[in-house]
Write a structure and sequence with these properties.
By secondary structure, this protein is an alpha/beta fold. Helices cover 36% and strands 13% of the residues. The strands form two sheets. It has a six-stranded parallel sheet, with helices on both faces. A five-stranded parallel sheet has the order 2-1-3-4-5, with helices on both faces.
Length: 335
Amino acid sequence: MPERPQALFAMTAQNVPHVFPPEVLARLRECVEIDPTLVAHDFTDPRIRETLARTEVLVTGWGCPVLDTAALDAAPKLRAVLHAAGSVKGFTTPEVWRRSIAVSSAAAANALPVAEYTLAMILLAGKDVFALRDLLRTRRAFPYGGIVPGIGNFHRRVGIVGASRIGRRLIELLHPHDLSVALADPYVDAAEAARLGVPLLPLDDLLRSSDIVTVHAPQTPETRHLLGARELALMPAGSVLINTARGALLDHDALAEEVRTGRLTAILDVTDPEPLPADSPLFDLPGAFLTPHLAGSQGNELARLGITVVEEAGRLLTGAGLLHAVDHSALERAA
């Protein structure tokens, strides 16, 4: 058995037992030498620096300090960063890549609960569950006489904005359902869309033709307010907008106006800012359904992130390549 490399946790300390519950931590410690009570939240801490000098593998997560030149100079043996979360943009710097340090992310594992949440919301929205639930609560009687016209998920058009990991996983989850699914993504060509099993449309055409639009594009300077007043106006009356990506992709003032008129309804798990100001009309509008950024890994789903890191650590130990290595060249247009 190869010698286990020295590793160090670098994340919010309170998250360690959630991401690495006992059985997952035990598996990790079979692959690396790591102290679960020593968690870096500041790379300048003398106690941390002592271990950092010997560290070959950083196990990172939400709250990881920035890996700048000073931090990397203090870790001359560092050869891999295994991130037990999604995006690595918040803490990696160009110096990480210049030093050829391998970086892995559990973004694919984190994509699954977001795709599951979105699938659930698509199916519920297709049945107009939220509005009919409110009517039932108000009237204390069925708000219809047996048949509800205009609802249902048979051949309903779902438009996916962005073939991200989450967007692609959602496409997989939608395939067994009797829905019509289309995709808009400027970085996907027709051949790739065909492999995904969906037609590729320009964004405007997708907005015009979809009953439900769900957003899965990354947040970049180019995608800020990707869906503004002009784009929202293209959506048919009665259609639904779902956002589980980043709040800044939507113009919330323009969206609030569309929801206020009753022309559109919105399901928002992310907003800009988070949370919205207390006086935002979206909190009270009947056509808006807000959840507190919980589509991503929560509760027992966090262990899936830890398991992904354990599997990557096992590959490092045996000399195999990382399965979830981050492609630096694609990072600029990634989430």
